[in-house]
Amino acid sequence: VSLHHAIDVGFLHGRATPTALVLADPRQTWPGRSDRRQPPPDTRWNPSTCEVGALVLSPLPRTGALLWRRQGLPSNSTALLPLPLPLGGALVVSDNALVWLDQVHSHGVALNGEARCEATPLVDGPPSLTL
Question: Cα(79)–Cα(16) distance, rounded to whole angstroms?
Fold first, then answer.
């Protein structure tokens, strides 16, 4: 399991085994230096460098297995908020976007014109959730 340079950690709700979510930025970018990284000549610059990985933790023999991974999250992601059931999954918070993701889906919504997000945009809005 290789999730380098963790930004935030949380645990998924409603799982039989402990499942940790890790928000990481393996390239260690930040908005002030993002223009210094030169992309390959045939591609355009991609500000989406963060990723989230779900790790199933096993007490014996003290190991963890990567359950799923979502890459291409905004490089300015700052927080990971695990959401309770029935919605489940997690909310990734960045300066310019909110991204909800789980094992199968990832949906994002831009908060302003500076958002560059690789997630699928919301179409019908999120499911209703009563707290």
Answer: 24
